[in-house]
Write a structure and sequence with these properties.
The chain has 167 residues and is mostly helical. The chain has one domain. It is 81% helix and 0% strand.
Length: 167
């Protein structure tokens, strides 16, 4: 189980590093495009690259953000419940989260198959869409595994200890 959890964490970090690197590239490319556009030489296809990159930044950063518990949680009602009920609600929401992210990953996978069959490409560079769709499917699969990791911690009771350490 430790190896499984360590593998999830490492995969989250790798995707997060990719997302950060892509974001830096997008900022630099946007800067270059703005400067070159003022001289009458915009970067051809910059919007396509920014759209692809933005998709990667979003999709690849979510699993590690979940691992770090970086999402905003509004728990005004849950705070007022007994600790045992809070724990039960946390377990249920994590199970629902796992199912939702598996559903999204599966549908991205199916969409990737469809896009590959139709041969859809971008207009400027004629890049195929399907690798990006498959990457997002993988990212959401990893997201569901990250929520599973969080569920295991919640069931074990190590979740509360981790939160106290970060506070």
């Amino acid at each position: 189980m430790k190896n499984f959890m360590a593998a999830i964490r490492k995969a989250d970090i790798v995707l997060y590093i990719i997302a950060g690197s892509v974001l830096v590239f997008l900022v630099l490319m946007t800067l270059a495009d703005v400067i070159l556009r003022n001289f009458g030489h915009p970067i051809t296809g910059s919007m396509e690259i920014i759209q692809f990159g933005g998709c990667m930044v979003f999709g690849f950063s979510v699993p590690y953000a979940t691992f770090l518990k970086a999402q905003v949680q509004v728990d005004l009602v849950i705070e007022k419940l007994k600790p045992s009920v809070q724990r039960t609600v946390n377990i249920i929401t994590r199970i629902v989260g796992i199912l939702v992210f598996l559903f999204v990953a599966y549908n991205f996978y199916l969409y990737g198959i469809d896009v590959k069959k139709t041969g859809e490409t971008t207009s400027s560079f004629k890049l195929p869409y399907y690798p990006l769709v498959y990457a997002l499917a993988f990212s959401f699969l990893l997201q569901s595994l990250t929520v599973l990791y969080d569920l295991i911690e919640t069931v074990r009771g190590t979740d509360a200890k981790k939160e106290e350490g970060h506070a």
